[in-house]
Each structure stands twice: as structure tokens, then as C-alpha cells.
Design goal:
single chain; alpha+beta; Beta-Lactamase; Hypothetical protein af1432; 5-stranded antiparallel β-sheet; 16 helices; elongated
Length: 451
Amino acid sequence: MIESTDPPSVIEELVDLSRVAETIQSQLDSFQARHERAGLVLPQDVLQGLRQFNAKLITLRESVTTIEVERRSLRVFAEIGHVVNSSLDLPTVLNEVIDTIIQLTGAQRVFLMLRNARDEMEIYVARNWERESLRPGEYEISRTIVNQVVQHGEAVLTTNAQEDPRFDSMQSVVAYSLRSILCVPLKAKDDLIGVIYADNRIREGIFTESDRFLLSAFANQAAVALENAQLFNDMSMSYDQTLEALVAALDARERETQEHTRRVVLYSMTLARKMGLSEDELIEIRRGALMHDIGKIGVPDAILQKPGPLTEEEWVLMRRHPEEGIRILQGIMFFEGAVDIIGSHHEHYNGNGYPRGLKGEQIPLYARIFSAVDALDAITSDRPYRKAQPFKVAYQEILRCRGTQFDPKVVDAFMTIDEQEWRALRAITLPRERGREPTMEAGGKRGETTR
């Protein structure tokens, strides 16, 4: 049942006009009753015409109401289409679609179900009239109706499942007190991939044929959203696989830093989660961490693999790699957020870093997070110019550089993460070294944590 909660003025005017007609008719009826003994009788066609006029006003009002409700539904449908086509955040899009279905149809609950690997319909989104996600214990629906829609590919509509002879033998209808039910197929390129199931367990006659049409249209929108998201996920996966292969090749150039990138990706995402960053931000951080040293493509092997301290001339070449990384990836939308790490992960909080000498919050947050975990991995890993040191030394060094090299807020979050968690993440990338503590041997100069 679609209801218009904000009737337009034309409907109000028709209502007022109908009331005026009813008032005139009532007054004429009263006039005729008082004066018919005196022989004053109104022509029958006047009263009859007035009644017909009033009836037509009522019909017109109902027609206009229906048109306005349909117009409102189409407007909302267009808005949902815009959301579907402008966003690849699938949970957000589907929640918006489901909430709109509930608003327009008067459903208590709506479920979006998708075919899983076992060829079964699995609930993917479940929402109620309060715009809340339902818990698994609240998934009380008629699986028989769902299976019927899946089998025949046609929508099922019942205004009262308790009295509908089609569902006499369905135990779930009785057990769950199901009444108004509307279930439509979800198709992508003629393949049935799921269903949308709506119900109201309190009221009868909630859904109409108009709702069936509307829900089917929304199902098509949901199918588009799913298809777009799948294409985007496939594209992202291809990108990520290509990136990981490229990064593995880069890491292989530096014998002592192989698997470094995998570690800092895990480390940076762990610290970012600790600081409360969103899932979208974590994606950007992952890409930036993966590609943070892409600019080292232009650094000679002799410098990358040098076993001792770099000369001033060699440092000049080394310090170009952040800007070189930005140059390589500039203009590629996929790396739009990642360049914050690529170009700024060697900046220091006090302004003494490179390449631009940024200070404080001039340094992008992603880069401030990454620089701390980059230092953690540099200190606890073997490098050509020194041996690995224990994690407790890394904690001490990062804490010592709080407010100078590192953002105090980032350091404070870092210190709340237990050493065992860092070591477990490291063990994922170094299975042969699982449980091995870096040894305390001769290191480089203080403060020389990364190149």
C-alpha cells in the first residue's frame, strides 16, 4: 500500500470543492423539504446534476491522488537509481534501496536474498521499518514462497497468507503469523540471482499490484548495484594482483628488505584501525603502503644494496624517490588517496623530513601513520647497514621520537598495541622466522630508521 504523506495542494482544493458541493446539496435538500408543501419544488435535474458533480469530484480526487502517489514513487525510484549509479559502496546502496521499499509499501521487514555457492538463497540484507538491520534470530520468513519465486521466476503477492488457499499447507505461514507478503525475483541479464521478500505480520491487505510493479523495479535497481559492485571488485582485485606482483619485483631488488612491503601493509592497516579509520580509508592506506617505495625504481642498485652509510651525493638520489613515486602515479585515479603515503612518508612531524619539509598536520594523516610502522619494520629487520633489533628497541625509539619524527597521536595509538600482535603480523610474512626475536647487534646511527 503506497501512501502519500504530503498531498499536493491540488488534492486539497478538490477536497474543499467537494465539501462545498456537499454543503450546497444539503442546503437544497433542506430547502425542498421545507417548501414542497407550498408547491415550491426544485427541478429534479438540478439536484441530480449536483449529485453527479460531487461524485465526479470524488472520482477526480481519487485519480489525482493515485497519480500523485505514482509520481512520488517514480521520483523516489529515480533518486534511488542515482544512488545506485553513483556509488560502489554496496551495503550502503542496498540498505538505501531496502529502506525506501519499506517506506513506500508499508512493509514491516524486507529481505534481500542472493544465491550462494551451494545454490541456496542466503539472506544478504535484512532491514525493518525502523531502518535497522535484523539479527539472524529475526529471519522468520516463508522459505516455501521464496522457493516458489525462485522456481518459477515470477512474483508472489498475497494480501493475507493466513486465509490464502495457496498457502494452506505452509507451516511457516501459520507459525510465524505471516499475513501480507510480497516476494519478487532479482534478475541480472535474465539470470535469477536472488529475491526481494517483503512482509507485514500485523496488517492485511498491505501490498497491491502497484507495489508488485514497484518492488520489481527496485529489484532491477538492486541487480544493477550488485553487478556494478562485482565488476568493481573484480577490477580492484586485478589491480591489486598486478600491484603485488610489481611490489614483489621491487622488493626483490633489495635482498634484505624482501617482504618489507607485505609487513608494512599489515602494520599500517592495524594501526589505522586502532585510530578508528573507516574501511574506505583503510583501502587507501593499503594501496599507499603497497606502493610507498615505487619511486625507488629510479634509484641504482648500488645505492639500494650498499652495506654501509650513504654518501651525501647518494642521499640526494635516495631522497628523490617520494617525488619520483608521485610522478609515476600522478593522474591515476586508483591511487588518488595513496599518493599521500607515497609522497610524504619520509616527512617528520617537526619539519625536518623530506622531500618537502612538511610539518605537523601539513603531513597527510595516512603518511603520519605509515611513517611509524615503516620505522617499526626498519628497526626490527635486517638491513644492509645494520642487523635487526628487538621489538622493545623499536618501541623505545618510536616513543623517543614522539613529537619530533612522529605524530604524538599516532605514537600514543601505536603504544597501545601489544608487542605480540606486531610479532604475529610479522610471522605471517616470515613463516620460517616464526617466533624468532630479532637479535641485538650493531646498528646504524640513531634516528636512521628508514631510507
